[in-house]
Specification:
Length: 294
């Protein structure tokens, strides 16, 4: 497949959040209880996996509602399984729409992977990079968007086993989001992980993506299993390579909203805020002059 033209410069996607974001985990509900939204010099927004919050009641539901009343939120799903051979779970998508509507959340993102067939696999499996898969996935995305009445974004995923393909990974991602007319959740750590595991140039890969469709960015840490093997864990501090690639992304599309992911080995709030501060600092360096001096 011919690689489509790349668009550099300001993203054409209108973000619904601003600044640096943090993945909200239950263990953070109490430590962050008094915090207020502060795009530019603190936490500007939060992200949650909706599956972890949709059916909660009691104390956690009340606490979560208090957060969504104070902060802008985005959601990043775990179980849509957009590339699954099984039928799309439309009941789940409708329940998701209700959750998003109740909390006034406009952004829903998912992984460009599959995680189920007859049952859940509890892992995010790569989709073969083929023209047939492009059409299949794009049709499912369009159906999800129709039900949600929202434009969604798909994340470039990490994977560990080479795939038999007729498209490159970047060509596949570009083709899916353009055929589906959806957006891209750009995960810079996943690019770093894949570039080491599959031996390609991270910056060249970044430039091959449809950067004009970036809704927001993920950044996280990973585990160094060996010199030539990285594991995407979200359980470590962000590495220098990911910070460098984030800076390169900002140079191309501006300081789009960026979310710090930390799923385990979660440090004290002060440690998380150091990385939030780094995101804010990098964004300020790439902000248009009229914003930076406002």
């Amino acid at each position: 497949m011919k690689t489509l033209p790349r668009v550099h410069g300001a993203t054409s996607v209108t973000p619904h959040v601003r600044g640096a974001g943090l993945g909200l985990r239950r263990s953070l509900l109490e430590p962050l209880a008094g915090l207020q939204s502060s795009p530019g010099d603190g936490i500007g927004f939060f992200e949650v996996a909706p599956e972890n919050w949709m059916r909660l009641g009691g104390k956690f539901a009340r606490q979560f509602r208090q957060y969504t009343e104070r902060f802008p939120f985005v959601t990043h799903g775990l179980s849509l399984s957009i590339g699954s051979p099984a039928a799309l779970d439309e009941d789940f998508v409708r329940a998701l729409k209700t959750f998003l509507d109740v909390h006034g959340i406009r952004d829903y993102t998912e992984h460009l992977t599959f995680c189920s067939d007859d049952g859940h696999l509890y892992d995010l499996m790569p989709i073969p990079f083929t023209a047939e898969a492009v059409e299949y996935v794009a049709a499912r995305v369009r159906r999800v968007q129709d039900i949600l009445e929202r434009r969604i974004a798909l994340e470039n995923a990490s994977y560990y086993s080479p795939l038999a393909t007729d498209l490159t990974e970047a060509e596949f991602i570009r083709a899916v989001v353009e055929h589906a007319d959806c957006d891209l959740l750009l995960d810079v750590n996943n690019i770093v992980v894949n570039s080491i595991n599959h031996r390609y140039d991270a910056l060249g890969f970044l430039d091959a993506l449809p950067l004009e469709r970036v809704r927001y960015i993920h950044i996280a840490g990973h585990y160094c299993e060996a010199e030539d093997l990285r594991v995407d864990t979200h359980g470590a501090d962000v590495g220098e390579a990911a910070w460098g690639l984030l800076d390169a992304a900002y140079a191309r599309i501006g300081p789009v909203p960026t979310l710090l992911e930390r799923d385990f080995n979660i440090p004290p709030v002060a440690g998380l805020m150091q990385e939030i501060d780094t995101i804010n600092r990098l964004q300020a360096q790439h902000a248009p002059r009229w914003i930076a001096h406002a």
